[in-house]
Amino acid sequence: MVPAGGRIAPLFDVLLHYNLQAASCSNGDVDLSKIFAGTLVERDPMHAVTFAENHDTQPGLAL
Fold this sequence. Notes:
flat; 2 helices; alpha+beta; two-stranded parallel ribbon; single chain; 2 strands
């Protein structure tokens, strides 16, 4: 559904961030064919903003 005004805002794909983080800590025990499962990239890739880490966080408080 397109909101009033016809514009769609891009969204940060936080679930993909968590999937990538879990994969990086898995010691190789991860099925990369499922890395996009449930993510915005899977559902709406044209409006998903991907990121690996947020540089604006304090140590211990990263996403």
